[in-house]
Specification:
Length: 583
């Protein structure tokens, strides 16, 4: 073993001398205290020398030597603090296997140490070795206090969330979780559901969720997992709706479910849940604002304005609270007035829209966009575009958002060439952004450049294979032009696998079935899409299929309802003209 560097040794000696001097000074300064029997240290001279050498080697950058010297000392003494020190030395040196070696030696030397076995489990997760976890995990649960065991089990999904092979984690930990009974059973079901979800085993996740719900019928954990599973497993939604039928007073769950429906692009269904919440919790301004925003999105303008004003009434009531709560109320007011301005603009009342904007502070992009939109509606498009220009010192994220907003303004004014060029310039500035290319493709379609649109969409798919909007847009475009229908259906079905239940994709699938002549299936799919999102374009498709199926009265009803909400919708107008339907 090399001798310690003399400067390091000098520092150690100097530190010892300083401590001795300080101790002597403290003894001189302090009043005399009653003599107490000295506590004899367990450290003998050889151990002291071994620890000193280990620390000096570490200070000299010889982490490997220090690790071996101090690990030997820890094994000889059984000192847990020393074992922890050795593990940390290995981790700081990025020597994961050595850290695991030390942790295992710690568990072998002090078998009753829960911390030792927990460290082994954590290191195995860090080193991506799930197959080796069951034995130390079982030991950890055996030696830990009973009150701590559920928490240790519930933490497993988070511990293994970065695992490279989630299926291997589930296979390794599954038997240990299945073996749990009594007070640890619910935690084991929670962990199993989360691990199965990560592994893509939806059937097993659903089974565990049902069992957890039965074990804890008033708990939140089962329903939270079901909500998280909804985007990839439609059956999970039934678990949530069943709970809400049994316990309709679980308002927090209903609100979480409504937010999940919004995320799933199902505003019609989300609106239903938020409307129920306004009846059950009328003093909650958040549910009124959410309802108003959804009604505005679906062009239900009078209802949207009424809901937003109800929310404002409750926000305007003076109320004490924390700084965060006060800020949240202020943000809510800003959002409500912005939405009211948008609603007034859509009604064509530009004066009321401008008046609503006067209640909004700040110069964020959302505020600037509303002002730009009002200017454009008054024939001042160039002036409005200036408001949306990114600042010279804007971050990439802010610049990208501003460029997209500028393109959207042009699109709303039906300047599709201008929008295309704006998006093309943005895509050149941010060449790795598939969403910008996707938006450019949508403008190509508006311009009738279908080959260009397809090339752009295939670029998006190549860059981002899970971009469900790109698959759906390409499939729908083919179906709309009544070409390559088998390919169109394949593209749309793949998009639906990526985003199960999304109404616009279900609408596309219904439309391609209509083009293929499958009227009953087309009707079923389009009714499903319209129920989730009563959008005018989906209504136009549903009405046309109903008309072709001989259900003209029902078709007229669907057309009329859509026309009341969104009379200027292009797809609806074209359908009515094509079918020569008078409302």
């Amino acid at each position: 073993m090399p001798l310690p560097h003399r400067h390091a040794l000098g520092r150690a000696v100097a530190a010892a001398v300083l401590l001795t001097a300080l101790h002597a000074h403290a003894e001189d300064a302090a009043p005399a205290a009653p003599a107490e029997p000295p506590t004899r240290s367990a450290m003998d001279a050889p151990l002291f020398y071994q620890l000193l050498i280990g620390e000096l080697e570490l200070s000299n950058g010889q982490a490997g030597v220090a690790f071996q010297v101090l690990l030997d000392a820890a094994q000889r003494t059984g000192d847990e603090a020393l074992f922890k020190r050795v593990v940390n030395i290995a981790l700081q040196a990025r020597a994961g296997d050595q850290a695991l070696q030390a942790a295992r030696a710690w568990g072998d030397t002090v078998p009753a140490s829960a911390e030792a076995h927990q460290t082994v489990v954590q290191l195995l997760a860090l080193l991506n070795k799930p197959a080796e976890v069951p034995k130390p995990l079982t030991t950890l649960l055996r030696v830990s206090p009973a009150a701590q065991r559920p928490g240790l089990i519930a933490a497993l999904p988070r511990l293994f969330q970065r695992a490279s092979d989630p299926k291997a984690v589930l296979a390794a930990l599954g038997p240990v979780l299945k073996a749990q009974t009594g007070d640890t059973k619910a935690a084991a079901l929670f962990a199993e559901a989360r691990l199965a979800m990560a592994a893509g085993d939806n059937n097993r996740a659903l089974t565990a969720i049902r069992q957890l719900d039965a074990a804890l019928p008033d708990g939140d954990d089962a329903m939270q997992i079901a909500l998280d599973l909804m985007p990839t497993e439609p059956r999970a939604e039934a678990l949530v709706t069943e709970r809400l039928q049994r316990k309709p007073d679980q308002h927090a769950l209903r609100q979480a479910y409504a937010r999940a429906l919004v995320k799933a692009q199902r505003p019609g269904d989300a609106m239903r849940e938020f409307r129920a919440l306004t009846e059950a919790t009328p003093d909650n301004p958040a549910v009124w604002l959410a309802l108003g925003a959804l009604e505005l999105e679906l062009k239900q303008l009078p209802a949207a304005e009424a809901a937003l004003r109800e929310g404002l009434k409750r926000l305007d009531v003076p109320a004490a609270g924390t700084d965060a709560e006060i800020k949240a109320r202020a943000d809510g007011r800003q959002s409500a007035w912005l939405l009211l301005s948008q609603a007034a603009e859509q009604r064509g009342d530009l004066k009321a829209a401008e008046a609503a904007l006067q209640n909004v502070d700040g110069a964020g992009l959302d505020v600037r966009y509303r002002r730009a939109s009002l200017l454009a509606r008054q024939g001042k498009l160039a002036e409005g575009r200036k408001l949306l220009q990114p600042a010279a010192d804007a971050s990439d994220a802010d610049a990208r958002a501003s460029l997209l907003a500028g393109a959207q303004l042009l699109r709303e004014q039906q300047d599709y060439v201008g929008a295309f060029e704006a998006l093309k310039a943005a895509a050149e500035r941010f060449p790795d952004d598939p969403d910008l290319v996707y938006e450019q493709a949508m403008m190509s379609e508006k311009l009738g450049r279908f080959d260009e649109m397809e090339a752009l969409l295939r670029r998006v798919i190549q860059a981002k294979p899970d971009h469900h909007h790109a698959y759906n847009a390409l499939g729908y475009s083919l179906a709309e032009r009544n070409v390559r229908l088998a390919e169109a259906k394949q593209l749309i079905e793949f998009a639906l696998k990526l985003a199960p239940g999304e109404p616009f994709i279900v609408d596309s699938l219904g439309w391609v079935e209509f083009r293929l002549g499958n009227l009953p299936e087309a009707t079923r799919l389009l009714k499903q899409a319209h129920a989730g999102r009563p959008d005018a374009e989906i209504a136009a498709h549903l009405g046309e299929v109903l008309w072709a199926s001989g259900e003209q009265d029902e078709a007229r009803r669907v057309f009329a309802e859509a026309a009341r909400r969104d009379p200027g919708n292009e797809a609806l107008r074209e359908a009515l003209e094509r079918l020569k339907v008078k409302l």
